[in-house]
Amino acid sequence: MRFRRWHRPEPYGDTSRKRAAFLRKQRLEREALPLFADDIAAGQHSVDKEMARRAVWWDEAKRERRSQRAAWWRKGRARLFAFPDPLRHRVREIWRTCPYPADPASFTDFLHQIAVGKLDPYRPPWVFHQQLAVRITRNPATFADAFRQIGRRKAALGQNATEADQLLFCGNLGSGILFLASQARPIDPDESLHILDGHSLGGSNLGRASHWVDIEVRGKCSDADFALIERLAQASDTRPVVVRRMVRVTPEVRTGGAV
Asked: Were 37 and a residue from 30, 135, 231, 235 both cysteine, which residue would form a disulfide, CB within 3.0 to 4.6 Å?
């Protein structure tokens, strides 16, 4: 457990500055009441006697301070082990990284804040907890409001070796994240395909009636969301738009011997 070591005990430091400060203190006491200066001086002891008294007091004060500090640590550890096992392990874990000083007073206060509910050990305030909010677009007015383009790639059109641009979109209408793959296809299979490069929904290819747009929906999509995607996609493009769900192909598992 994290703690700060207490420094080694050292004898009292008898210095000339401390002696001068003590003599100045005695002089000011006499000057404060000049009529009783002789009586005050008679009750004052020598600087050597004062340094000897401080040396004895210093050792006693250090021992008392160390005993008090050890008692605080024992009190804190007893309070720590009074917690349930899962909470105790969590408290020890966050104590290693918390910004509090590694002394028994801070440790005891740290445990007290947890006990009274002011400090949540599973969400400590010195750790940044980003609020994760799902980006959901409810009742979008346009296709661009509902889906954001996240990529573009070249994809072949069926068995034809020529490749055309395929646009990738993502969005969330409320039922979960959806991925859409959009690709323009020629109505006439014999038509040249180079004009399909750079197609976009609602983009520069509006009005090209020789193409149709194929949109494949990937992800959990309800019937209502599917109908909404069809409506928004068709409204954003003058070409015919076909929206379909992605069909997953499940490989066949053969049993028995080889054919």
From this structure: 30
Distance CA 35, CA 246 (A): 107
CA angle, corner 102, sides to 65 and 9, nearest 5? 35
DSSP 74-103: HHHHHHHTTS-HHHHHHHHHHHTT-SS-SS
pLDDT in tens, 44-89: 999 999 999 999 999 999 999 999 999 999 999 999 999 999 999 9
The mean per-residue pLDDT over the stretch 89-94 comes to 94
191-194 — which CB contacts under 8 Å span 24+ positions?
A: 193/157, 193/160, 193/162, 193/164, 194/162
Instruction: Give residue 76's region: left, alpha or beta (phi > 0; psi -120 to 50).
Output: alpha
Tokens of 246: 């992605």
- Give yes or no for residue 14 having a pLDDT over 80: yes
Span 108-132, mean pLDDT? 88
C-alpha Rg value of the chain to the nearest Å: 41
Other beta carbons within 10 angstroms of residue 237's beta carbon come to 25
Contact criterion met (CB below 8 Å) for 183 and 167: yes
| Encoded amino acid at 71, one letter | A
Q: Which residues pair with 185 in a beta bridge?
A: 212
- Residues forming beta bridges with residue 69, ordered by sequence position: none
State the pLDDT confidence band at 230, using cuts at 50, 70 and 90.
very high
Q: Which amino acid is at 85?
A: D
User: Nearest-CA neighbor of 182 among 239, 136, 142?
Assistant: 239
Q: Comparing C-alpha atoms, which of 48, 108, 49 is closest to residue 82? A: 108
CA distance 205 to 192: 15
What pTM did the predictor assign? 0.45
